[in-house]
Specification:
261 residues, mainly alpha
């Protein structure tokens, strides 16, 4: 299972052209949905207006070298290692989901376009990466859903309580979970593989087609927001917020620390 290109095996019953066309459509949905989200919510306009306002209220000029340093720091700390999360469990779960999703998507594209049939031998790396990426998303996603979500961990709500904000996480988990089940059934020759492949396509279509209504696009906004925050700290504007206190007040007790984002 882990070393088999499930898409190549599927080419015996479904045309590789169909799979490649489907991936292209999903890519178009991501681009179109993100642009619609930006225009509909005015995110880009708000971001640039806020950036200009912060620069005007800045107390010092930020040079080119310092700006490059801030950009590198943002890429390494805020993007690559999710340094904005104070909760270490939430940070690890997020990193598992992020890097797992990247491995899952990249390996999918490579196998569908580079090795679409069994005639082309797929390097073992790609199916292994595809399965590991899907498992990483499952571990990080289900861990977050059942144990880390603030409305479950801190507010005591049921993990089965659903809101529109949960659409991205749930559709992502459904996509990777069904992908793993389909891959297992197909590699073992068990019945129901085509049924789960259809469910896998349905969940994936919801994932990439629901961007205007889900939190999918936030992965593109967060790096820009992190960069803006660090720039406001560098030029002294601090987004019009007061500086940190010398002796910040500690909430909660020594026996039980507060549980929050």
């Amino acid at each position: 299972m882990f070393t088999t290109n499930a898409f190549a095996e599927l080419s015996a019953s479904i045309s590789p052209t169909f799979m490649q066309g489907y991936v292209v459509i999903m890519f178009i949905l991501v681009v179109g949905g993100t642009l619609y989200d930006v225009l509909h919510k005015g995110s880009a306009r708000y971001f640039f207006d806020n950036w200009r306002a912060a620069r005007k209220s800045g107390k010092q000029q930020v040079g080119g070298a310092e700006m490059v340093s801030v950009a590198i720091h943002t890429a390494v700390v805020d993007v690559a290692t999710s340094g904005e999360f104070c909760n270490p469990q939430r940070r690890v779960a997020h990193l598992l989901g992020m890097y797992g999703f990247l491995a899952y998507v990249i390996s999918t594209a490579v196998m569908v376009f580079g090795y679409p049939t069994t005639a082309a031998v797929t390097p073992t790396l790609w199916p292994v990466l595809w399965h590991i990426g899907a498992l990483m998303v499952c571990v990080g996603g289900y861990w977050f859903w059942f144990f880390i979500r603030v409305d479950v961990a801190a507010e005591g709500h049921s993990p089965w309580r659903l809101m529109r904000a949960d659409l991205f996480v749930l559709s992502l988990l459904a996509s990777v979970t069904l992908a793993l089940i389909w891959s297992y059934l197909q590699s073992s020759g068990s019945g129901g593989a085509k049924v789960f492949f259809g469910l896998y396509l349905l969940a994936t279509t919801v994932l990439f087609g629901s961007i205007p209504w889900s939190k999918f696009a936030h992965m593109f906004f967060k790096p820009a927001a992190a960069m803006q925050k660090r720039m406001s700290e560098a030029d002294g504007s601090r987004s019009k917020l007061p500086g940190p206190a010398d002796k910040p007040e500690i909430f909660g007790s020594a026996r039980r620390q507060p549980r929050h984002y």
